[in-house]
Specification:
147 residues; 4-stranded mixed beta sheet; 2 domains; Ribosomal Protein L9, domain 2
Length: 147
């Protein structure tokens, strides 16, 4: 039986895929759980429309991410932090702080996207920003001692 998947089914396919499955599998498992529907011309048309919409969204998202990655690549982020007499920071500057500083400057970055080791002394450091679709940007973080 030919079906159109309404949801992603492990080891069968993604949402919108057209698959040939056993009649019993479709009637007893896929249809009752609303994981698939019979591949009628209307269902095939809806699946094609959905795939087109998904492709357009992914393309739009990729363009936005490329723009943000281009803006961030080579960006210098400066911050001040209190320093002890030994020359170390009282609180390290980590991914969360970097993401927060970038967000304040209008760049939507999550802490999970920032790849760096925590900074514990003043100086100049590099950090990577990873985006979906395999895009990456490298920023420079300059930490200075607060007066």
């Amino acid at each position: 039986m030919k079906v159109v998947l309404s949801a992603t089914v492990p080891q069968l396919g993604e949402r919108g895929d057209v698959r040939h499955v056993a009649d019993g599998y479709a009637r007893n498992f896929l249809f009752p759980q609303k994981l698939a529907e019979l591949a009628t011309p209307a269902a095939l048309w809806r699946a094609e429309q959905e795939r087109t919409a998904v492709r357009k969204r992914a393309e739009h998202e990729l363009n936005d991410l490329q723009r943000i990655a281009t803006q961030l690549d080579g960006y210098e982020l400066e911050t001040e932090a209190p320093v002890s007499e030994a020359g170390t920071l009282y609180a390290s500057v980590g991914a969360q702080k970097v993401a927060q500083l970038l967000k304040e400057r209008g760049m939507p970055v999550k802490k999970t996207q920032v790849a760096m080791e925590p900074i514990k002394t003043p100086g100049e450091y590099k950090a990577g920003i990873r985006f979906a679709h395999g895009l990456e940007a490298e920023i420079t973080i300059i930490v200075t001692a607060a007066p």
